[in-house]
Amino acid sequence: MATLSEIKRPIQSYLDEFETKFRDSMKSNVALLDIITRYIIKRKGKQMRPMFVFLSASVNGIVNESTYTAASLIELLHTATLVHDDVVDDSNIRRGFFSINALWKNKVAVLVGDFLLSKGLLLSLENDEFELLKIVAEATREMSEGELLQIEKARKLDISEDIYFEIIRKKTASLIASCCAAGAASVKAGPELIKKMKTFGENVGIAFQIKDDIFDYESSNRAGKPNGIDIKEQKMTLPLIYLLNNSGFVEKRKIIHIVKNHNNNPEKVAGVIGRVNQSGGIDYARQKMVFYHDKAMEILNEFPDSESKTALKQLVDFTIERKK
């Protein structure tokens, strides 16, 4: 598997310049905001979203100023949603660092998220990037709907496989889809190509989320035991849904009772994880992940060969082969 640094090679100069432009896009005259945004920039992740934007742009044309705006828009939206998510989830840690709400409390975190969203709106309007704004606004709506749908269904733990895919399509895949669509739109690709890139990104995003689901049932700590975090948070992920769909009425009620009422009991959670593995739930999830990976690759294979296309293929492979 190619490393992220190898995948970045064709677009490294764009990513370097993007870092500067993104930093500038977050500036404020309010000292507290500047301190917080500098803290956010220092904690940046793998840059996967900007990578999808620049590679999607390169596959469809030549990277230009509009592409930098697209990448900044996506990253402002993504950062805002992460800040708000930490408030919603009452989470104190993000990527191994203290979250904004842990350091500056919920009120400040919510306002910082609002500020980042407004910066995205202004950035697109100041540059007359209405097509990009439409793509990103749609992603924002879908992400919110996905989160609310998950919350609604989590109360009864009655998520069917169809509902699960609807949740992850909106909650996770819509953002990667918007990266790919915005990248294509930034180089003035036609409506059909933009739609094709959006579908490509959606398939990648679904495969990406299923990979995340699988992590929770694999050995991922020093003791070699699965985390079971999704069960503790009462999240209905694909391996668990598969187990429930293939259990008798009594067994199903017993599992749901544990997830609802004993999700903080390590032994009972380990028991559910064991049942998921025995049922073939992990293998089933892997098959689905590969299915969506292959659908994404089919779309990408329609484009002419190039260094950027190869890197984009490697990035898709990375999403389902990564170790964390």
Features of this protein?
mainly alpha; two-stranded antiparallel sheet; Farnesyl Diphosphate Synthase; 1% strand; 15 helices; single chain; 324 residues; globular
Radius of gyration: 20 Å
Largest sheet: 2 strands, antiparallel
Structural class: mainly alpha
CATH fold category name: Farnesyl Diphosphate Synthase
Rounded average pLDDT: 86
Low-confidence stretches: 221-225
Structure description:
- The chain has a two-stranded antiparallel sheet with strand order 1-2.
- The relative contact order is 0.11.
- 76% of the residues lie in helices and 1% in strands.
- α4 crosses α8 and α9 runs parallel beside α15.
- The protein has a single domain (4-321), classed as Farnesyl Diphosphate Synthase (Orthogonal Bundle), CATH 1.10.600.
- It is mainly α and 324 residues long.
- Mean pLDDT is 86; it is low at 221-225.
- It contains 15 helices and 2 strands.
- The longest helix has 27 residues, at 100-126.
Gist?
The protein is an all-alpha fold and 324 residues long. The protein has a single domain, classed as Orthogonal Bundle (Farnesyl Diphosphate Synthase).
List the helices and strands and how they pair.
Elements: H1 4-8, H2 12-25, H3 31-42, H4 48-60, H5 65-88, E1 93-94, E2 97-98, H6 100-126, H7 130-154, H8 161-186, H9 191-215, H10 229-232, H11 238-245, H12 249-261, H13 266-279, H14 281-300, H15 307-321
Antiparallel strand pairs: 1-2
Helix pairs in contact: 2-5, 4-5, 4-8, 4-15, 5-6, 5-7, 5-8, 7-8, 8-9, 9-14, 9-15, 11-13, 11-14, 14-15
